[in-house]
Amino acid sequence: MRLRLVPQETNWDFFSRSKLWLGISAVLVVLALTSFLVRGLNYGIDFEGGTTIRTESAQPVDVGAYRDTLNALELGDVSISEVFDPSFGPEKNVAMIRVQAQDGAESADPAMIAAIQNALQEVSPDVEFLSVESVGPKVSGELIQTAALAVVAAIGAVLVYIWLRFEWQFALGAVIALVHDVVLTMGVFSELQIRFDLAIIAALLTIVGYSLNDTVVVFDRVRENLRKYKNRPLREVLNLSINETLSRTVMTSVTTLLALFALFALGGDVIRGFVFAMIWGVIVGTYSSIFVASAMLLRLGIKRDWSKPDANKGNQFANVDA
Amino acid sequence: MLQIDLWKRVLIWGLVAVGLALALPNLFYGRVEQANDARAAMVAGTAGDEVEAQAGQWPDWLPSGIVNLGLDLRGGAHLLAEVKVEDVYAARMEAFWPEVRDALRDARSEVGTIRLQPSEADTLVVRVSEPGGAARAAEILRGLAQPVVSLTGAGASDIEVTTRGQDVLVTLSEAERLATDERTVRQSLEIIRRRIDEVGTREPTIQRQGADRILIQVPGLGSAQELKDIIGTTAQLTFQPVVTRTSDPDANPGIGEEILPSLDDPDTYYVLETAPVVTGEELTDAQPTFDQNNRPAVSFRFNPSGARKFGEYTAENIGSPFAIVLDEEVISAPVIQSHIAGGSGIITGNFAVEESTHLAVLLRAGALPAGLEFLEERTIGPELGADSIEAGKIASMVAFVGVLIFMAASYGLFGLFANIALLINVGLIFGLLSLIGATLTLPGIAGIVLTIGMAVDANVLIFERIREEVKTARGPARAIELGYERALSAILDANITTFITAVILFVMGSGPVRGFAVTLGLGILTSVFTAIFVTRVLIVMWFERRRPKTLEV
Q1: B412 touching A (Cβ < 8 Å)
Q2: B406: contact with A, CB 8 A cutoff
Q3: Third-level CATH fold of B6-26+66-72+382-546
Q4: In 10 A of CB B381, how many CB atoms?
Q5: Would you list the domain boundaries of chain B?
Q6: pLDDT band at residue A318 under the 50/70/90 scheme
């Protein structure tokens, strides 16, 4: 007996409510953008500059006491958060301390770090400093530019590739789905105020890759079926293609999610944000390849017959062979 | 029908074998690492039973490349420094002044007396007394220009001379600045490398980034602060004539003079001539030593030209003091007792033994041509890295087992084939990582785990296609063949697009993100290889034995 996530033969109509789905997606994109503009992303030091210190002590972290002692140092904006992970025992209490970039300094002043460490050692004598990272405003400004550029470049490169391999309608559909995925991911990060750092950019690009992977598989089948069933309406062909590839879409999503959930639960807190972004991206990417990319393709329409010149075009080159 | 040529089979299994052999050393990470270190030590000249025993821990006919662990996994210090290239402009102009002075003095009849005016550090402003003499002075100074020594700036001259009323302004030309910047950064890189080598840590990464930045990563070093202590001081040593000694830090030094604090005595300041007699660049050696009173000191030796200059100066100035200046602080200002020939000497000051040792290292490695500004610094404790590796291992195992079970449950025997391919795939990723000496980072581990999840995609595509083809094709062999054939375009398109994003990540990313891009990209290559070739060989071999009439996919 085989495990089947999707019945052997499906004949679901994915476009009966396509307006509704596109509408929901549009609303979500608007919500995500609003959240992004209103709340903003919780940038890590990679993008905003500043210093983070990771501490570990046997005693429980007293966030209030930490805050009081650090406020006395007058370092500007200081945030302290306790870090939890199932792998930490009761003897392992971890906190992350974040200090804003200091005026006029690029990277952290050693005296400042020493002051922070001394202050914390007074509150909690056995505290250890597992990592100290500090990024100056100059670099963080550039990093954020490069990151944005990387995402745009990835989407652009993919647009060109699909355009070359398929038709422009496919490329446009795929890219709209990609933008949708990226925007929704940023929206989640700004709404939940999860720390947004360089690794998240890597996750975003992976989401771009994954979502595309899904979309391309569906499109590949669409192209094949369009040649096979020359007279069936586009909507039917799209539906058929999605149904035929559905089993694969679900299988791959499940294996990928399986791996990602393992990483999320057991991979430690350092990369949890990164893994969260990817899990979210896989889910959204799978959804968007069907309900956004294909739905857009249906709306954009496709020139069906490649062998004959396009009758609608009517320019001087259209009938060159006639 | 369903056939694969023998040579293809041999090639496929051969590649797999090579890949797995390359991955093998990673299973014995600690042992191989020690053996490699020991071998490197033996090449460097260390001998002894202990080293040989360590080298013997791993047979030398086996591949010994291992995946480098990134700082986030191993712990260590990371610094990104920007070289303040403008520092050099000022030094260049300072050094140029005597030449300007001499040239204009010779033409006194035409330009009159000359005076150096206070100005920006990268510009010399000379006022001439003769009305209209500025143009002539500028002409003379233009004659001092040298051609720029660089590929891009060829043909341009190194200085730009302009006039403003009675003033003549001399600055470095744009082409010369570019050439100077390039030299400055290269020199800094070299000197940083030498200093870190002097301290003797293992496997440091010292790379140039962009036009004027240097990235330094030293695994296993306690903190970024220690690293900064080694490379943060410029260690510019100069010997300058002393004009006078004062206790007023705000005293107004004359033109061509500067006021510098004393290192030992906070109340003492020296007014010095800006142009040095000799600089640390002309040192050939520096060693920690003790002076006649048994206090720590640093002995030094000049190269011939430095020795000559120093000898001449001391011969002419017996009885007057000169200052030994390190990074804008006067270490000491002894009075010249006699002509110092031979070009060696000793620097005394209030040093501790560590300080004199440290100073000797810095002087030996050479001065940084310009100051460094630290833009980014990270210290990762080794415990944190060890935790991350541990967590990454467990997560990968669980992910692996989960995917294996899931594939077997979904596709039965074919699922098992895919699972074998997946195991080989992970082996190949490690093999390739070791081969190219890539660095594994925490996001890189995530990339591998993600690959485990996504690698089966190609097989899923093929198996789903075979299922479809079974319904229509004549016979199982044909179905398998069609399944592979027809799934290929989807597999290629899907993987090429993902590969594009991995390449972009690699090009634009840095550090850990780059590590992720590398594992993701390699994972795509190996997973396409294993899915298309390895599972195919497995299925064909199975098919040839069993000759099944129907296919259970």
Answers
A1: yes
A2: yes
A3: Multidrug efflux transporter AcrB transmembrane fold (1.20.1640)
A4: 19
A5: 6-26+66-72+382-546, 86-179, 235-349
A6: very low
**With contact defined as beta carbons under 8 Å apart, do B510 and B480 qualify?**
no
CATH of B86-179, one of 1.10.238, 3.30.450, 3.30.1360, 3.40.50: 3.30.1360
Query: Do the chains contact at A128 and B460, CB–CB below 8 Å?
Result: no
Whether chain B has a CB inside 8 Å of the CB on A191: the answer is no
Fold: same for B6-26+66-72+382-546 and B86-179? no
DSSP string, A273-318: HHHHHHHHHHHHHHHHIIIIIIHHHHHH-----SSSPPTTT-STTT
A50-135: CATH, from 1.20.1070.10, 3.30.70.260, 1.20.1250.20, 3.30.310.180? 3.30.70.260
Which phi and psi angles does A251 have, rounded to 5°?
-55, -50
* Distance (Å, whole) CA B64 – CA A280: 40
Chain B contact for A45, CB < 8 A?
no
**H-only helix segments in B372-530:** 382-435, 442-472, 476-508, 512-529
Domain ranges, ordered by start, for chain A: 18-42+139-300, 50-135
What is the token pair recorded at B541? 């071999």
The CATH number that domain B235-349 falls under is 3.30.1360.200
Crossing angle of helices B86-106 and B133-142, in 10° steps, is 120
Write out pLDDT tens, residues B47-104.
Answer: 777 778 888 888 888 888 888 888 888 888 888 999 988 888 887 888 788 888 888 8
Mutate to test the interface with B, among A145, A205, A289 (most CBs of B within 10 A): A205
Token readout for B223 is: 């903190």
d(CA B341, CA B283): 15
For chain A, give the longest Cα–Cα distance.
90
> B498-518: per-residue pLDDT in tens?
888 889 888 887 767 788 888
Between CA B417 and CA B276 the distance in angstroms is 76
Residue of chain A nearest B467, judged by CA positions = A8
B274's enclosing H/E stretch is none
**Which of A57, A258, A272 to probe the B interface (max B CBs under 10 A)?**
A258
pTM across the whole model:
0.79
Residue A271 CA, distance from chain mean position = 14
Taking alpha carbons only, the member of A239, A227, A228 closest to residue A290 is A239
pLDDT in tens, chain B (553 residues): 567 888 889 999 999 999 999 998 888 888 888 888 888 878 877 777 777 888 888 888 888 888 888 888 888 888 899 998 888 888 788 878 888 888 888 888 888 888 888 888 788 888 888 887 888 888 888 888 888 766 665 667 888 888 888 888 888 888 888 888 888 899 889 888 888 887 766 678 888 888 889 999 888 777 787 788 778 777 788 888 888 888 887 777 777 788 888 887 788 888 888 888 888 888 888 888 888 888 888 888 888 888 888 888 888 888 888 888 888 888 888 888 888 877 888 888 778 887 788 788 778 877 888 888 888 888 888 888 888 888 888 988 999 899 999 999 998 899 999 999 999 999 999 999 999 888 888 888 888 888 887 788 888 989 988 888 888 877 888 888 888 988 888 888 888 888 888 898 888 877 677 888 888 899 999 999 998 899 999 999 898 888 888 777 7
* Residue B518 to chain A, least CA–CA distance (Å): 12
Q: Which fold has domain A18-42+139-300?
A: Multidrug efflux transporter AcrB transmembrane fold (1.20.1640)
Q: How far is CA B39 from CA B203, B436, B454, in A?
A: 14, 20, 39
List the one residue out of B126, B128, B97, B91 whose CA is nearest residue B111: B128
Q: How far is A314 from chain B (nearest CA, A)?
A: 33
